[in-house]
Amino acid sequence: MKTTLYLQNLKNKASEALILKRLSEFNHIKNISFKEQFGTINFEYVTKDDIDMVKHALSEIGFPPFGEKNLLRRKKAAHKKGKKLSEAG
C-alpha cells in the first residue's frame, strides 16, 4: 500500500537525505520519494504498524508529520533551558 505524509521542517535535499538514511533501516518501507515544495513524503508499506513506526522515527529526527508534536524542538528547548540554568548557577 502507499501513503503520503505531510511533514514539518522538510526544507531541502539534506533533510531528505537524513530521512532516507533513517527510513532505510526499515524492511517494509519501500519506494520513498519527496515533494519538497509540498513538504510531503510518499512511501509504500505493508501494515498500519509500519506507518506508526515511520511517524515515530520521523519525529525522533525532527520531521514529525503535521498534527504530531515536534520532539526535537522540545529537546532543543529543554537543552537551552538547562544550559541557561547551568550558566546562571
TrEMBL record:
InterPro entries: Nucleotide-bd_a/b_plait_sf. Gene3D superfamilies: 3.30.70.330. This is HMA domain-containing protein. It comes from Gaetbulibacter aestuarii.
